[in-house]
Amino acid sequence: MNLPFPPVIPKSMTRGFFLFLKIAGICVLILLLHIPLLMTRGILMERQRYQSDAAAEIAGIWGHEQGLTGPVLAVPYTVPTHVTRSKAIDGKIVNLDEIELSPATAYFFPETLAVDGTVDPEVRHRGIYESVVYSSKLRFTGNFRPDPTTAGVEPARLDWSKATIRFGLFDLRGIRSISPFQIQGGDAAAFESWAGTAAADFLPLIAKLPNGVKADGRIEFSFDVVLQGSARLQLAPVGKDTRVTLASSWSNPSFGGAYLPVKRTVGPAGFNAEWTTTYLSRGFPQSWNSRTDTGDLKQKIEQASFGVTFAQPLDGYRLAERAQKYGVLFFVLVFTAFFLFEVTAAVRIHPLQYALVGAALCLFFLGFLALSEFMPAGLAYGIAAGACTALISLYTWTFLKTGRRTLVILGGLTATYGYLYFVLQSEDYALLAGTCALFAGLALVMFCTRRLNWYALGTVNPPDAATEVETR
């Protein structure tokens, strides 16, 4: 049967369909707003790369990260080896076994090693970027008690007249001065740079052991090192018993490496830290010789090293990077408030108005990033958050119709920005604080909508004579 008129869609179904479209449109808009967020993150990564390049340029001039190894006692010796050579005797080729003395070197770490030093860090700038560098004064004291048998060498073969002291550090350009290697009750010997062997890359400074040292005696020593570097200072526990104490005016140290300080005090005036270690836990031998396969000794020593990194407080880049992870939270909270105003107070909000508010929320992250390059991170955050809150509040006042609703948006944004800053500052409790904020936001939405009849949102008042469908 053919109907003379098309079927009529009830108004309740029409309104429900448009509410569904509104919710779907908000979800799509939130997804689309991730595009400017990703663009802002790309700018952040680019600025961080510029900062890294600036820090590398400063370190290249001032000095890179420094790691100190030594002192190491090196004593040459000879090893008899059997060699087969071919010789012509009476016109015949004869193989003869001969004994040759091959050169080798025995190495000994100190029996005890104490390092006492001060570190004076400062912030250097390259354009708008900055990097932490430091100057350090270190005094090395201790003693050697070399036991050739532990190095696999016969004591009689050691040539003590050619014994040397070796010392290593990462970046030789950072050395300001190094005092002569002083033997207690004896002479002193100056350090020099040496090259030509693989060991030079590992221990680039050498000093001839002063005269008067007994081969079976205790060698007490002391010397001072004044150096400069950047970002990090670490030392290798080469003593059988090693003790290191460092003092600095830097109030944000980050202790790391294979060992943490056994004692430390950190405050606004700086820090004092003390490390103590023994050779039992470090993973490399106390003595060895050049003919012994010790594996990658340099790598083992670096893995056992410890020290301090002169970390900066949370800078703008790190705060901006972490803040961007919460961008979707702003979109959801603000758009949820707008949607609730629409369904409960009959306020009509155009999708373009949603989009403009979302753009303002995205602009906060870019503004914070830009301002943090020229002022402290906290001040930059406050200015960017205040500007975006004022912009959104003034704009929403034009379509929310009443000051009370505008105050809800103003108060919500202020509270959200304030709580987010607390979360960003609390590195250790960021996850817990963020989870609590999401829980509180969800609980608030549930409380505000507890009496809302969601099924009734898609219906209209019962039709009267004027609204009934006309029939012919």
Question: Can you offer a commentary on this structure?
Answer:
The chain is an alpha+beta fold and 472 residues long. The chain is built from 10 helices and 18 strands. Strands 1, 2, 5, 9, 10, 12, 14, 17 and 18 form a 9-stranded mixed sheet that branches. A hairpin with a 2-residue loop joins strand 3 (112-126) and strand 4. Helix 2 runs antiparallel to helix 5, helix 6 runs antiparallel to helix 7 and helix 6 (327-345) runs antiparallel to helix 9. The longest helix has 29 residues, at 34-62. The chain is elongated. It starts with 10 loop residues before the first helix and ends in a 24-residue tail after the last helix. Residues 459-472 have low confidence and may be disordered.
- Tally of separate helices: 10
Biggest beta sheet summary? 9 strands, mixed
Give unreliable regions as ranges.
459-472
Beta-strand residue fraction = 25-35%
- Radius of gyration, rounded? 37 Å
Structural category: alpha+beta
The first-to-last residue Cα distance is: 17 Å
Helix content: 25-40%
Total E-strand runs? 18
Order of helices and strands: HHEEEEEEEEEHEEEEEEEEHEHHHHHH
The overall pLDDT average reads 83
- State the shape: elongated
